[in-house]
Design goal:
Chain lengths: 155, 378, 270
């Protein structure tokens, strides 16, 4: 049955490694399987951040649109990783585009569903934070290195 | 070299030394008074020596002062060192010519050819200077690549050392264990005696070459009193050093204090003028210059002294690694006292005090070491 | 030391202001070099600069250097066309630890122009493939049009015995590969961190981040090698310019084992 299979898939995803069975079940209630074809957008800048994605297969490019240059990709995210952190903080709005570079299979997590469950159960909320904060910190550190533009002719 | 009994030369004997060296084809250089300082230059004879002069030295202070006797070597060290002769300030390396497609590179006239024609004889080398020469010998001839220009000038050189009759205001050879007595590295060594017995020089022989030159000079064996007098000169000098620096732990002390706040303090005073590197007898850094004529057919490369205090000394694409005065002062001092040990198994400092005397703001390397040691966080 | 006369045979653009020169000696054969060593190249009338050898150490007929035109001498060298003369002294320096890496996994991490001094190591690793464990190349650069040595990368990719991942800091257009700093590729690479040897070359900041990432993955400090760069005038340890604390980059490097220079690198402006 779909939910049971999803439960297993969720638990096997690197992001939820170590989460206890009960919490998995709770979280699973906010999850569903999704798929994007190459070139399809997962979401666009400005849209409301209703869900985030745990990638199971394929690569997603995070882009911003630059009038002069078209879409500029500043990061790619791959299998086992997470796309979308803006759902965590108000105003819950995406600040960039996310495009499937190739066929992408992912678990889509309903953000407002998960936010509600975390409010109701702070232990669950803490488990979620423990998993998201490292993602944010890691993104911040790698972004800093990108900003330094070390490969420029002055670097 | 078996120690032989010291002998004595009088002032005429000293003249004879100059003659003997000239007869053998040496270019004789030594101290002389010029521009209110005692510098090293070509000497025609003892009359060119700074008779009756001494130097008064302190941080950022140098004055020549008249002595009340006629000592010929009654001063300490001036702004120059013997490195200006051995590690020439400017050396032509090679010359390139391009005619159409044909490009050739030729070495500048070999230093050996120039120098063999007129080898150098130094009169009046201080113990600290002998050590400085030994340091540059190690740096420029003791590694995998030998500097042929230094080697050519150095190998034929004849060194007449002089034991200091007094310590200078900024001297600390005792702390660095490089003096005040000249013990090695000379062909002949003189200790000037000026007392009731007259004006004479106790002479010690350092090499066979020295012995053979001495043989041509009028001399007599030294008396026991003269030997004692010479020893007393050295003792008196050793006891009156102008500065001191505890030197046994300096390497580790500096390397574990690279972020000590004293570096900020000295950076506030340092003008980054580079005087210290110019007067220091062991500083050896050089740079190269490429020049060409307007048509591009002739080009040449030459080498000249450089200083780690210049902004572009450490320049790589994008900027200098050491752009702050603080980092450049720290580089100079830690190289001289600490990493020189890692690179050459010896200290780079001989305790001559020139960097203290000739710093326009009187930065004192011994004081900086003391401040770092005393202010070390525990 | 006198420069020997060399002539440019071919010149190829390998990126914005980056040119690869294929040169031959006017007199006799090219000097044999070890991967990671450099030559001092003279642009007559302009100056002399250190340039890593970027060619195949096993091919005695070709001497290849990749040059980025940043100053007067490198710009003059980068402009040399077929038949033009230049001066050459070398090779100098300590190269990559090819022998120490035998029997172990090798992770090669290149940033920007850093791929040039690493290319000879890659040629050697692939030519003697059976002597080494897994080989991984992680190459990061600014954008897709700055990727160097594309043909080589493509042909190496076609081999099944080397893992290659290329990433860029940002991309426009139809780039479908990784975007992100090269350090992000390290945790996901297949090598045994407890025994692998890492060869790292690129801008100093990138190398520091890469080393941190390697350490996080469990690679020991004495298994990491990096190539340093400093101002050089003589390349033979006599002019004092390339000092980095107690070491001279021209003589003790440019390749250093990380644990031996770790404390120097930690100091600022050293």
């Amino acid at each position: 049955m779909e939910t049971h299979g999803l439960d297993r898939i969720l638990r096997e995803h690197r992001f939820f490694a170590g989460l206890d069975e009960e919490s998995c079940g709770v979280v699973c209630g906010c999850a569903r399987n999704v798929r994007f074809e190459a070139g399809q957008y997962l979401f666009r800048a400005g849209e409301s951040a209703d869900q985030f994605y745990l990638l199971r297969h394929g690569r997603v490019a995070l882009e911003v649109a630059d009038p002069g240059r078209g879409a500029v990709t500043f990061q790619t995210v791959g299998e086992g990783e997470v796309v979308g952190v803006s759902w965590l903080i108000p105003p819950y709005r995406w600040t960039y585009d996310a495009k499937a570079v190739e066929l992408v299979r992912a678990i889509a997590m309903d953000a407002s569903c998960l936010r509600r469950k975390c409010e109701a159960d702070h232990d669950l909320g803490y488990e979620m934070m423990k998993r998201f904060v490292p993602v944010l910190v890691d993104r911040l550190q790698t972004t800093r290195l990108q900003i330094l533009d070390v490969y420029g002719s002055n670097g | 070299m078996a120690a032989s009994e010291p002998v004595v030369l009088d002032v005429d004997g000293l003249s004879a030394l100059f003659e003997a060296l000239k007869r053998r084809g040496y270019r004789v250089v030594g101290p002389t008074v010029r521009d209110k300082a005692i510098v090293y230059d070509d000497l025609a004879g003892p009359a060119d020596l700074p008779e009756g002069w001494t130097d008064e030295q302190d941080g950022g202070h140098y004055r020549l002062v008249r002595r009340d006797d006629r000592a010929l070597f009654g001063y300490v060290v001036g702004p120059q060192s013997w490195k200006q002769f051995l590690h020439a300030p400017r050396v032509d390396l090679w010359h390139g010519t391009k005619r159409g497609d044909d490009v050739r590179v030729e070495a500048a006239p070999s230093p050996s050819e120039q120098v063999l024609a007129e080898p150098l004889a130094f009169i009046g080398v201080r113990a600290c200077e002998l050590q400085a020469i030994a340091v540059q010998d190690r740096v420029l001839m003791g590694g995998a690549y030998v500097d042929p220009h230094y080697k050519a000038r150095r190998e034929g050189a004849f060194l007449v050392a002089v034991n200091c009759g007094q310590a200078g205001g900024t001297c600390f050879c005792v702390s660095m264990e490089t003096g005040p007595k000249a013990t090695a590295g000379f062909d002949l060594s003189l200790t000037e005696l000026l007392d009731d017995g007259g004006h004479r020089f106790l002479v010690e022989v350092g090499t066979e070459q020295g012995r053979s030159v001495l043989a041509e000079l009028p001399h007599r064996p030294a008396t026991a009193a003269e030997i004692a007098a010479a020893a007393a000169v050295v003792e008196r000098t050793a006891a009156s050093m102008g500065r001191e620096m505890r030197s046994d732990d300096v390497r580790d002390l500096l390397m574990r204090n690279l972020e000590h706040r004293r570096w900020e303090d000295v950076a506030d005073r340092c003008l980054s003028c580079g005087n210290c590197t110019m007067v220091c007898p062991t500083c050896f850094c050089t740079t190269v210059e490429e020049t060409s004529d307007l048509t591009g057919t002739e080009s040449a490369r030459s080498r000249r002294w450089d200083s780690c205090f210049t902004m572009d000394f450490s320049y790589i694409h994008g900027g200098s690694v050491r752009s702050s005065t603080k980092s450049r002062y720290r580089q100079w001092m830690t190289h001289k006292l600490a990493t020189w040990h890692d690179q050459f198994d010896m200290s780079g400092c001989v305790g001559c005090g020139r960097c203290i005397t000739w710093c326009p703001v009187g930065i004192d390397i011994t004081e900086e070491v003391r401040a770092i040691r005393d202010g070390e966080p525990n | 030391m006198l420069p020997r006369i060399a002539r440019t045979r071919r010149r190829r653009r390998d990126g914005p202001a980056v040119w690869t020169l294929d040169i031959e000696m006017a007199d006799g054969g090219p000097p044999a070099f070890a991967p990671g060593q450099f030559n001092m190249l003279t642009a007559f009338g302009v100056g002399e600069v250190p340039i890593s050898v970027s060619g195949d150490p096993a091919d005695p007929s070709r001497l290849v250097h990749t040059i980025r035109a940043v100053g007067p001498a490198s710009t003059a060298l980068a402009r040399l066309g077929p038949g033009d003369a230049l001066g050459l002294r070398g090779p100098f320096g300590v190269g990559w630890p090819m022998e120490q890496a035998v029997g172990r996994d090798v992770v090669v991490i290149a940033g920007g122009l850093g791929l040039a001094p690493l290319r000879p190591a890659l040629y050697r690793l692939l030519a003697e493939r059976e002597r080494y464990g897994s080989i991984v190349l992680l190459y990061g650069t600014r954008s897709p049009d700055e990727i160097m040595f594309r043909r080589e990368l493509e042909s190496w990719r076609r081999r099944l015995d080397i893992d290659i991942e290329v990433t860029v800091d940002h991309a426009v257009g139809d780039w479908r590969g990784h975007v992100g700093v090269v350090t992000t590729l390290i945790p996901r690479s297949a090598f045994d961190p407890s025994s692998a040897v890492a060869l790292v070359c690129g801008p100093e900041i990138m190398m520091r981040f890469a080393i941190a990432s390697l350490q996080d993955s469990g690679v020991a400090d004495d298994a990491i090698y990096l190539s340093m760069e400093r101002n050089m005038k003589c390349a033979v340890g006599l002019c004092g310019h390339c000092q980095m604390g107690p070491v001279l980059v021209c003589r003790d490097g440019p390749v250093f084992r990380y644990d031996r220079i770790r404390s120097i690198l930690a100091a600022r402006e050293i």
